């Protein structure tokens, strides 16, 4: 697929409160890249890929994400540390300050949309201070044809001003950066941060409210691909668990790598038009599809470049080094980005305690429990003060983007499972033979073999002969899997120390229970029974 050609359409930004601005509308990626280079805001690698530095912020700032509390949201949002309320009057005042700041400047504007299924399409107008932010929007959102642009009517707008710094005492923010959703005015307002992920996650968060509340559609923080027989597989997982890696499969067409909806008609559709992948330790050998997508038109963020070559192992700026690229940079993709007939769901977790089975089959209640829990683990050295593995939970495998209570999304998942008969699998891509520092990371070739066995139907239905019920976690653990040694399938057997294994396993189940306490009053009995039922010694 070729990039769209520029359009001659013009309109005024005064409607948005931006006055006397020079509008650069719907520029091509090549034109935007040239703008970035001319302004000294980036550099090219030897492959022709644009590399930029996002500045102070190299990741999202969850404590600075707000939702305007108004007649639409006040009784529906799960308010708290994740969904922080913002007053409507304070939003209006801050919006006016941002648009006054943008007035008189050169502004980059792009019309695009989210949701590949036409029934759920959301038209978006993105207004950017910087050209590379606008190029990111080209990569990550879906791209209208020139014919569609003639009568394009945006439903939501994104106003993105990285150079504007809020005054917390006056503006009601926590610090100078902010990302605020206003469902009444249909605006995502972002300022004080150059991190591009705030743009895509702002719209994702909006859809995580709009789709279930208004359109009876289940939104998911997941990747998805589809096989030759039309069977769709869905991969949930937090950062570092392998969501993008495992879904980018040369034998299956990629639907998308991060954000999807599951409709009442039982189809899966991508929200986005691109991919936003981590590139830490990236290599052509381990992840050839992603490596090959990094070419002209892609944007590398916060990487170190030496003599025109990217050093993917260098994390001196951040461990969250990333690349954005339009999905057509991947050769084997589903067009349009829609799949039917979901057959298997994979929950990916990188268990640094080394006690969870590398693969296990979940019942509907267990699936709901693990979905609400969203478990993975932090390993020593990844954050200041982390000296041993620490459990990390993010509800629905994407808590920072979920405006409703996690139990509402979990109940939607359970209903989908029961209505469609889809199988749910818990896959540990973390450690085996002991915790981090003692054991080893489960080999990627084994994880791929387990995923492939599921997709081929080789693991079959549950039976006592073929599965073992894990004595601590209660999940069904297969006894055999093609391409994987039997000993690898049993985490206890890899430890060679039963007492140490069970002590560590019970430590983790206690963490699960402690985390789940905040959901118990919302979750029904079926979901509550899906967790580990045995307590520590």
Account of the protein in words:
This protein has 537 residues and is of the alpha/beta class. The chain has 15 helices and 30 strands. Strands 11, 12, 13, 14, 15, 21, 22, 23 and 26 form a 9-stranded mixed sheet that branches. An 8-stranded mixed sheet has the order 1-6-7-8-10-9-4-5, with helices on both faces. A 5-stranded mixed sheet has the order 2-3-17-20-16, covered by helices on one side. Helix 1 (29-38) packs antiparallel against helix 3 (131-140). The protein is globular. One of its GO terms (molecular function) is phosphoenolpyruvate carboxykinase (ATP) activity. It comes from Aquimarina celericrescens.
The stretches of 5 or more residues where confidence is low (pLDDT under 50) are 380-386
Number of helices: 15
- CA-CA gap between termini: 59 Å
- Strand residue content: 15-25%
For the secondary structure, the number of strands is: 30
Assign a percent range to the helix content.
Answer: 25-40%
The helix/strand class is alpha/beta
Radius of gyration: 23 Å
Average predicted local confidence, pLDDT: 93
Main sheet: strands, sense, barrel? 9 strands, mixed
Query: Which word captures the global form?
Result: globular
Binding site for Mn(2+): 201, 221, 258
GO molecular function: phosphoenolpyruvate carboxykinase (ATP) activity
Pfam family, one: PEPCK_ATP
Subcellular location: Cytoplasm
